[in-house]
Amino acid sequence: MAELKEIMISVDDFETRVAILEKERLAEIYVERNDAPSIMGNIYLGRVSSILPGMDAAFVDIGQEKSAFLCVGEVVFPEEVDSLPQKIHYFLKPGQDILVQVAKGPMGTKGARVTAQIALPGRHLVLLPFGDSVGVSRRLSEDERERLRILCEGIKPDDMGLIARTVAQGVGLERLKSDLKYLIRTWRNLQRQAEKSKAPKAIYREEGLALRAARDIFTSDFIQLVIDSPKEYKKIQTFLSKTSPGLKDRVKLYSGSIPLFEKYNVDSQLKKALRRRIWLRSGGYITIDTTEALTAIDVNTGKYVGKTSLQRTILKTNLEAAREIADQIRLRDIGGIIVIDFIDMEDQKDREKVFSTLNEALAMDRAKTNVGEFSEFGVVEMTRKKFWQGLLESLCAPCLSCEGSGVMLSDTAAGIEAWRGIKGFCRAKSSEALLFKVHPRVINFLAARRAKLRKRMGRDVYLYGDPTYSPEGYELVSEGSHRKIKRVYKELCKEYAILHLT
Fold it and tell me: For a surface tag, which of 53, 164, 292, 401 has the fewest beta carbons within 10 Å of its beta carbon?
């Protein structure tokens, strides 16, 4: 086998995690929370809530918190109305029921993206109920693609389409027929359920993450699949018995005392994958910053100074970075527009080497990528279609202090802001004393200026630091006589472990 590939699946009370290891290095990670399962691939009987003629799109109520978005390119148009322009408002009306499948789950403030072009996945085939063509995975060799295309054309229903998946490599006709029979039966059942249901309603739900990993990823290329859940282990064994009996013996149930992801060093590698800066072996590094519009990746020589010439130092750093960038894009499941700023290279041959290395490394990615040539500024632009929610979206949340910007006011700047605000309150109030809440990081700044504040304002200011409060904020908690403020302050001290200034 060309490469040591393994799948690790860990299931606990909170989530299911699937890790793909290549030569014991974490290559892909997928996480699904038990209380918030993915809706990707689910099929809903939805109801059109509104039409957007200017965008040639519609919003569809599928029973989720936010309506789903359906663009005109994902609508199935009736054959008998080919004479009409293919505009969404000609075929869909508010209140109309429509069968849709989730193509992209909700993210942030956006609802799910859906398609009316249903695709039912099996182990070896994907059934396209509204299609009429045959497709074959591009990851297979030309000879194998031609073999599968001929087999699929021979079994394809007249009014449906088929796609042969990568896992269909080497599979014979009978197994393909069995997969197709199951998919057609599933589709007929789904249609009957839709006819008697009231929108919005889920008509078909995808399998859980563990079984999907066995169905969509686990092939003969993997030496083993290790899972720590007896329940999911039985499901996978049952599934493989029907679809790929030769892989059953490669599925192992883990029962060790050390957690599975700790045993195979997945947890430690996962922590590194969440960092903004990734160090290269040579001493250089790359930084990854994500915005709403795109992901920017910057390459730096860092601590690497080279041995012979600046040109060779830059080339070595860029080559190493190209491989690491491809790995990180895949591991983090970064999608959309990606801009890579390599260190500038004067020699065109060096650029070609880096470009070739990047493309070779990206060839390992199951996701579709499109890479542009180097621009005149030494920048490479590419796009990637993501599989999942993305590592950062799955495991992280925006910082409450910086609100996702990655920066916040320095201690001094935050202290000055608090000082100015407190002065404003003192001018507007006539009480003997005032009690403010601030973040502990500005306490020292204010303590050094307390006497000046009392002298200028003619009243006492009491402050306490709350580490859960915004580092850039301040809040008037109480005001009144010295006796009252001291009493309130003492009560707060009993309730919280407080940094204070009195």
Answer: 292
CB 43 within 8 A of CB 203: yes
- The Cα 153–Cα 305 span in angstroms is 58
Measured distance CA(60)–CA(53) in Å, rounded: 14
For residues 154 and 175, give the distance between their C-alpha atoms in angstroms, rounded to a whole number: 14
Alpha helices in 292-347 (DSSP H): 310-332
Yes or no: say if 22 and 3 are a contact pair by the CB < 8 Å rule.
Answer: yes
Of 422, 414, 333, 316, which is closest to residue 369 (Cα–Cα)? 333
pTM here?
Answer: 0.79
Specify whether the CB–CB gap between 317 and 343 falls below 8 A: yes
- Residue 353 to residues 234, 350, 356: CA-CA distances in angstroms? 48, 5, 5
User: CB 477: neighbour CB atoms within 10 A?
Assistant: 17
193 phi and psi angles, rounded to 5 deg: -65, -40
Contacts of 304 (CB under 8 A, 6+ apart): 280, 282, 283, 284, 313, 316, 317
pLDDT tens across 334-391, in order?
Answer: 988 999 999 999 889 999 999 999 999 999 888 889 999 998 888 999 999 876 667 7
